[in-house]
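anyone seen this seq b4? input:
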Amino acid sequence: MGDIRQSLLPRDVLSAAKELLYHLDIYICNLVQSGRQPPQVDSKTLELVEEFILHAPKDRNTPGRRMSALQELQLLEIMCSCFQEQSRDTVRQLMFSALFSLQGNQADESRMALLGKLVSMAIAVGRIPILECAATWLQRTHRVYCIRLAQVLVDDYCSMVPGSVPTLQNIHSASPRFCCQFITAVTTLYDLNSEELTPPLELLQMIVSWIQDDPRLVLITFLNTPLSGSQPISSLDLTPLGGLVRWCVKAPLAYRRDSKQALTNGTTQNEPETGPLFSALHLSVLQVFMLLPNILNEKGLFGRLALLQMESLAALTSDLSRLLDQADKHTHASSADTHALSQLTLDRLAQALQVAMANGALLCSREDLRAICSRLPHNNLLQLVLSGPVMYYNNIHTPPLAFSPHAAHSPIASHPTHPTHPAHTPHTPLATHPSSHPQYPAQPFMTGMPFPFRPSH
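predicted toks r here
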């Protein structure tokens, strides 16, 4: 395609961009049809994209061309139509990659700016092919850029335009893949370590409603990802489960901290609104874990692929230790209230650990858990979970998958079977639960002990 540059130079910026998109579509169609494997866009074509669509200067002596706001809007509409009219997904994905795959150069900022506007428009006008391409982009791109895109969408639909949240919420049924990746990105972005990193109420409500409507939504990427390749270490997690557990566990202390600061600043407290939301989310996450045994067994992955990573849990317990120390030292609430919130936090952590281990989402020993929870204060339920039997899933005589995002650091890889600890089957059932929740069968070491799941808090 390098020979078309001379024909593009005399055109105005919008006309040149439109013409290049047309030629790019034809070029990629021919590339796919040639059967070349893998089909790969050449560097000359990528340079044309940077020059005539992203408007990166060809060299230092050539000033970059700029579009007006109206021209940029027109370009976005043209791109939406281009992806909508192209019926072959392979062509669309290659074209999206040619436009927005990060190259590590100065054009990347232009790529990110244009990408954010294009995906935001695709949500507004329901362009599903673009959302599907964006889902793939979120799966393959460094998490730093994924959360930048997520931030743009949260700003557009949860902050800047009042009443626009339903527009974003409606894509749940249109593009589940995009929704799953979006949830993973926002749970990575908002880690609840500060008020600025606390999800907006509208965003939280939307995600809770999505998962309540369809718990399998958070597993869509995992269910649709070929397990032959490896996940880049810097990419988003394969599922948002780790981020959702972090939200549920940290919320009681994080929102109490933020609400006290808000009251000091004269604003209203939002803890009463968020409390039931996080309780509902916590219940939904546990229900997702309980879907996993059948799914993992069908794929032959039970005991081989950890969807909840030990590194994520270690970071969570470290954050919890800090939050609990802050609550003890700086709380203005009654000591009883602070103690209740701390215990709720630790109860949720214990419940998540136990249900994740029993259903094959977390592959580790109780010794590993005791090590990462050693700085946390006493909690009856957590102590019960930590003192349970050793559980080594690599006693199934199959190696861990290289596909695991952190296989090199996986507890399966780093902790060989210890002969001093008797092996237990990977189908160890859950703790005895009150009769009102019969879905939690009895676990031998916890027989007769209640499983205090309290979603109403």
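The longest helix spans residues 271-298. The radius of gyration is 25 Å. kinda curious what u guys think
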